[in-house]
Design brief:
By secondary structure, this protein is an alpha/beta fold. The protein contains five helices and five strands. The protein has a five-stranded parallel sheet, sandwiched between helices.
């Protein structure tokens, strides 16, 4: 038998081949999809509904855990060169602790996360940079971000810091799903 007549050797990393990773539904996962969790940036529970449900869907579809990233905001000085005093930073930390406690309570009481292993981690800094950092460190399969901002305070924050979804997409280190 010649070498051309021999059947090709199946590689375990090719979709559709024996041993390739598959979704819980048996669909082959492309070899370039990383093995880590589905990562989603969350702020307040009320504003993360659709993106959260999309992340849960993708988590279930891929058979991956869900990693929620809450990025704490630091009070931004309105005057260049202003450095907040420690008491102001303490007040800001207390406010962020309260936001995070409300977020955790809402997530635990919600049916949106039922049946999906999830974890909430907290980071401090610029939201897009922290979401990207966590996604890269955890070898995320996918990042999910929301696009809609509501209220005047959010508009001011967006003007000052830019669009988180746009910054995450432009980084292109991990596949990104933007949900309006």
């Amino acid at each position: 038998m010649s070498a051309a007549a021999e059947p090709p050797v199946a590689r375990a990393t090719e979709p559709g081949r024996p041993g390739a990773a598959q979704t819980p539904a048996g669909i082959p996962i492309p070899p370039d999809v990383r093995s880590g969790p589905v990562v989603i940036g969350v702020d307040e529970f009320a504003t993360c509904g659709r993106p959260l449900r999309a992340a849960v869907f993708m988590s279930r579809a891929l058979g991956r855990d869900l990693l929620l990233v809450h990025v704490r905001r630091r009070a931004m000085p309105m005057v260049e060169g202003y450095v907040p005093i420690p008491e102001e930073m303490g007040i800001n930390d207390q406010a962020e602790d309260a936001v995070e406690a409300d977020l955790v309570a809402s997530l635990k009481s919600s049916d949106d996360l039922s049946g999906v292993p999830w974890q909430l981690i907290s980071a401090t800094g610029e939201a897009a940079a922290e979401i990207i950092r966590v996604a890269v460190e955890r070898e995320a399969a996918l990042v999910v971000v929301g696009k809609k901002h509501k209220g005047f305070a959010e508009v001011l924050h967006r003007i000052a810091s830019g669009s988180v979804s746009r910054a995450v997409v432009s980084a292109q280190k991990v596949p990104v799903l933007v949900v309006p």
